[in-house]
Amino acid sequence: MLAGKNILLIIGGGIAAFKSLDLIRRLRERGATVTPVLTRAAEEFVTPLSVSALSGAKLYRDLFDLTDEAEMGHIQLSRSADLVVIAPATADLMAKMAQGLASDLASTLLLATDTRVLVAPAMNVRMWQHPATQRNIATLKSDGVDFVGPNDGDMACGEFGPGRMAEPLEIVAAIEIALDAGTAPGSLSGSLSGPLSGRRVLVTSGPTHEPIDPVRYIANRSSGAQGTAIARALVALGAEVIFVTGPADIARPDGVTVVAVETAAEMLEAVQNALPVEVAIFAAAVADWRVVGAGTSKIKKVKGALPVFEFAENPDILATVAQMRAGRPRLVVGFAAETDDVIVNATAKRLRKGCDWIVANDVSPETGIMGGSENAVTLISDSGAEDWPRMGKDAVAERLALRISEALG
Ligand code: CTP
Fold first, then answer.
1. How far is the CA of 337 from the centre of ligand 1 (A)?
2. Domains defined along the chain, listed by start
3. CA distances from 390 to 39, 184, 369, 371, 374 (A)
4. CB-hemisphere CA count at 13 Å for 291?
5. What distance in angstroms lies between residue 408's CA and the mean position of ligand 1's atoms?
6. Annotated catalytic sites, by residue?
7. Which atom in ligand 1 lies closest to the alpha carbon of residue 338?
8. CA 326 remoteness from chain centre
9. What distance separates the 2 farthest-apart alpha carbons in the chain?
10. pTM exceeds 0.90 for this model
11. pLDDT tens per residue, range 150-178
12. Is the CB of 244 under 6 A from ligand 1?
């Protein structure tokens, strides 16, 4: 994965800079080339000599080094890399990035680059929590910048909390994910050291829209709330989540790779493109039928004649994946929305579809579950049916995510 890749590593000024020496070693062990850039402040913490000796490559230190500018301009330097990594990234460097300042070599490279950027922040807890820093982080995330860490822990300044730079191996794992063209820039954030770190999980969510003609469609009442909550809970445990969603109004979860689709056929294609994954969770309310011959012309009203539609059955996405002979995810989870004989129907559905678990719920109108914020589910697996108490959809999602991480071991 890392062999032959060129990583431009910007080392910011902070006590965590010493860990970037280990990061260089780990990257080179895996066959990557590391081109280091030291900020002036970083030189207070690590020496240029140790960095260039470990990297075995030319070290860049100062924007106004005329020889370097002649040899390799900063634009070329910033674009020749496969990935730009900032470790440690100080509050100051992130503020410059968010503002688009170019006042030294590091910030100039960051402004000039068209390469994906991964940031490993490290700073004092209060600086991390300061609204200014959080504002800058939000800006950078919406610009498509990826983050790894910071982690909670004891800090060099004697305080405890978020602000410790991610460990070198965690940064290596994040670099591998960021180098994977299948993940969207900006989809990485937070700690990678959760129980699902390094696990690739697919979640389908929301309704599908099946066109009748270019202006009309058939839909259902799914809000996408449960699928969105599940994706969030998985990200919180460190999973890499591919979120395939039909048209839903709800805010998309942070830190996932979003694939937006409209129809069941598009959802199936997106799911197949996302494979292989270790776990696949099918929370979408997929339309069972589509209108045959939904063309490009709007159907006009004709006096005295009602339109007649012919329907075709949509592919069953869950069953298609659950019954794959090769490359089937280790764990396939489906949902069953039932109004009668919930357990009997959902148990039969699990066998018919071939999935490992079914999350069954009673969507009778009097339960208020469909479109509501709470859910009462029964988890059905090969070891039987387990009723969960009624709880918020977020809590159901967290419990399910934990069960998944236990099942993967
Ligand atoms: N599903 C799917 N593709 C479809 C239909 C359903 O992936 N074309 C998935 C859903 O995401 C869900 C499960 O299958 O995980 C639900 O199965 P389904 O047979 O649609 O059950 P219900 O919606 O409960 O409907 P019915 O009782 O009519 O079977």
1. 8
2. 6-178 (3.40.50.1950), 200-408 (3.40.50.10300)
3. 54, 35, 10, 15, 7
4. 19
5. 24
6. 157
7. 24
8. 25
9. 87
10. no
11. 987 766 667 777 888 988 878 888 898 88
12. no
